[in-house]
Every structure is written in C-alpha cells, then in structure tokens.
Amino acid sequence: xxxxxxxxxxxxxxxxxxxxxxxxxxxxxxxxxxxxxxxxxxxxxxxxxxxxxxxxxxxxxxxxxxxxxxxxxxxxxxxxxxxxxxxxxxxxxxxxxxxxxxxxxxxxxxxxxxxxxxxxxxxxxxxxxxxxxxxxxxxxxxxxxxxxxxxxxxxxxxxxxxxxxxxxxxxxxxxxxxxxxxxxxxxxxxxxxxxxxxxxxxxxxxxxxxxxxxxxxxxxxxxxxxxxxxxxxxxxxxxxxxxxxxxxxxxxxxxxxxxxxxxxxxxxxxxxxxxxxxxxxxxxxxxxxxxxxxxxxxxxxxxxxxxxxxxxxxxxxxxxxxxxxxxxxxxxxxxxxxxxxxxxxxxxxxxxxxxxxxxxxxxxxxxxxxxxxxxxxxxxxxxxxxxxxxxxxxxxxxxxxxxxxxxxxxxxxxxxxxxxxxxxxxxxxxxxxxxxxxxxxxxxxxxxxxxxxxxxxxxxxxxxxxxxxxxxxxxxxxxxxxxxxxxxxxxxxxxxxxxxxxxxxxxxxxxxxxxxxxxxxxxxxxxxxxxxxxxxxxxxxxxxxxxxxxxxxxxxxxxxxxxxxxxxxxxxxx
Length: 574
What we know:
By secondary structure, the protein is α/β, with parallel strands linked by helices. It has helices at residues 39-66, 75-86, 88-101, 105-121, 126-129, 132-147, 170-175, 194-202, 213-216, 238-259, 285-291, 315-328, 365-370, 372-385, 401-421, 438-442, 444-447, 458-465, 484-499, 517-522, 535-543, 547-557, 563-573, and strands at residues 5-8, 10-13, 16-24, 161-165, 181-186, 206-208, 222-226, 231-234, 275-280, 297-301, 334-337, 391-395, 430-435, 453-456, 503-506, 527-530. It starts with a strand and ends with a helix.
C-alpha cells in the first residue's frame, strides 16, 4: 500500500474536502514564432479570437445568473475580463504589433502576456501580484480560440472530485460544478487571488501554493484538502480519512456559529467597540466584504485601476469604479487610498525614472504631489463618488507635515472646481493619512491636528523600521510584527490620534492576524481593516475579550526587550 504523501501550501479557503483526484491541465499551446505573409489578415484573425472569447465570457455570465450557488454580483469579475478584452489598449495594441512585426498572433499574444504577468508578479503587494492570474486567464481564453481548442474545466462525470492543477484561473473556479467538485489544490497562487476569493465565496475548500503537488498526484487516487491548515494529503489511510471526516463536521459547525455573528456588533465584554473593515482592490471585492459582515472598507487600493493598461484611467472611469464600491457598501464608510504607484508597482506610460532603491524613492504621494494633473483627476473622481455614500480619502507614504498640507490643498482645489461646475460631492469628506514611514509615526502628535484619522500600514512600517526587505529571504527573520519597537510606534500613533480627538486604524497584515489582534485591542485601536474572510473570526475574538485586561497586557508587552519575549508573554496570557 502506498504511503500517505502530504503537501503544505497556503490556506486559501477553509473547510475539509475528501475525494478522488482529477488532474486539470491547461491545454498546451506550443507557440512557435513565425512570420506571416499577410499581417493584416493575421491581425483580423486575432481580433476575431477576441470577439469569440468575449462571446464565451458572456455565456459564462449567463451561467452565473442561472446558478443559485453563485452570487450574481460575482459576474462582475468575469465582466472585468470582458472589459479588458474589449479595451482597445489591450486588443488593438496587440493587433497593431502583429501588423508592424508581421509575427503570428499566437507569438505576439504570448509575448504580451509574459510581459504583463512579469510586471504583476514582481510587485511587493501580494494582492497586485495575484492579478497575474487574471491576465493569464484572459490570455489563455484568447489563445484557445486561436488554436481552435476549448478552454476551461471538463472533467469526467464522476462525483466527489478533488481538482488538482498547477494553477486555476478565476473563470475556472466560477465554472466548477459544485455537485461534483468538493475541493481543489494548486501548485501556485496566494490568498488574495481572485481564484482564492471565489473559492471562499462559493464555500469550496482550497489550498494554493502547494509546490509540485500536480506533478505527484495521479488521476483516481484519494486525496484530502484541508483548506484551514493549508495541507493536502494524497493516499490517506482509513484512520486519516476518519479523522478528517470528523474535522469536516467540526469545521462546518464552527462556520455556522461564526455566520451568526454577521450582523453583531464588534464589542468587547466590557463595552469597547472596534470597527472591523475590509481591504479591497477592485469594486467587486466589496461584495465579499458585505458577505462577511464588514462594517466598512478600510482600504480601497485604487492603484489597481491604473495597472494593466497603456494610459491613465479617466476621471469618469475612476468615478464609476469608486461609485460601484460605495453603492455596494450601502452607507458603510469606504476609505479610498490615492494611488500607491512606484516602488515595485511601475507604470510604463508614466515614464517613471529607474531608481537604485525604488521603495525609498519616487512613489505614492510623492508622485501625486509632483504630477498635479494626475492627482486632480483622481481626487475629483473620489469627491464625485462621495455624493453616493460615506467616502473618506487617504494619502499613502506620508513622511512630512508639508506633504499633508500639500495634499489637503490639492483636495481643496478640486472641491472649489467641482463647486463652480455645479457637481455634487460631500463637502465634509474626511481626510486621513497612512502611517507607514517611521518619521510619520514619531511625528504623529504634529500630524494629528491636520487630519481626521490615521491608518497604520504595518507591512511597510515594519520593514522600514527594521531596515529589512520582507521579500528578501536572507533578512526575512527581521520582519518582526511582535518587536517592541513596532508595538511602541503603534501605541505612539494611537495615543497621538486620541489626544487630538481623532481615530486610529490599521490596514496592514497585522490587523487580521488573530494572534496579534489582542495586542491591538489592548493598545486601543479604533478600527481594523483586513481580508473579508478574516472578519468574522476576528469579531468572535473581540466579543470574547475584555479590553481592560488586554490594556494591562499591552502595557507589559511593550516593555519587553525582544520579539521573542513578547510572544512568550502573549502565549502565557492565552
């Protein structure tokens, strides 16, 4: 009998699934670059493939509308794919390259896809890295049309399937037949991919990033997917199957219990209230926020609107995206961060300078303040969206008081312009800043009177404070969210906000970390913004906590000499 083989990946969607492996392999497109005799005819062939792909996507949208297991709003993810396919910046640019180079359509499409995927995959922001999967999905569908092949998941009629693949794209996940597919696991991917988001939304247990899994798994073998722990087991024993069957029943009970907290307040046993909000990157993500009981959007990463294109998004395009998110949130606050471009998120059409150290260079608010026309277009769009709900604006990468005042002056200029044009907006729109530069944290007392709120971006704050690139494996041990220096900076920011009658939130990874939330509650954090899927678990923790006790604990923790000492003391508390 074969031994059980176990793989560890990323826990993408909670739950346990037991079934028979079905290997899904994307059709192999062995593209050979060739020179065509009629480049115009080749360009027309490519554009016809685009049309056919759009037609297929529209059919998928109809399937979504007819399937009660899929919220119809999730058709907007597929609609986003349709819009990219119909965007002249995508289709026409490739067609034009076919005409100018006389290369075959497959080769030009492959090269363009590789270029876009490489751009996204090298980004520091995990959410933006996972957008590479959307590009591969769109390109794969068009490529299939060029080759005359089908695109998507076509399994046998068997039931209790565990789908195993190198990768799955968003449309693959949407098209899964839940009467047969119990769970899936992939070699690559991350928690913030649309595939993972769709898995969580549809309640499919899923593990991603389980390296080499698809090379080891074989069609027909039994497999267990534990989407809560991120583990996949091939050829499990009967005892292991019994164990996971019991675990599945326990997990299902837990999810039902958490779902009961959907509309409950996030209040501790002694009456301390904290707002639990969601981080989103595109308007459609607001749907998942609502479905998971978010009390608002604490971070709308607006830079996603600027990516995967050849020109800046217009004011109208930005306004419509912001308005959709605001409308979905139905009166709950939506904090829109002005574009955080630069560093690892470069845009070719902005002609940003090449820098030796881009993370400490020309990025985020520095670009916005330097390129006022770009900034004015974005803040006008945000202001216009504020007429449709409770919108707040947030400026990233603030380091100095002067930057705050310049940003506020830019917003005021946009307000005056809109007023002259008779365009409605919320004149009382709140303005806040990201605290991710240590200088801003240390100067919080001076910055607080200038703004309505702070939002701490711990991802950058930690790496800047510790002088350690969290993407560099050689120094990743220095990325220490528990370090007393980090906790003291957070306390400094919260105290400064409260001293001036303002509120302080957090939108970095720490905000949704169940191990760290007790510390943040003890420090007096007013708002925590996280992945939508983390909200209910954090709400349960909040409702079972006593903030007075946690305040005493936090005061002791920040006096510890090291990250290790903090974790040891926290462990004893639990």
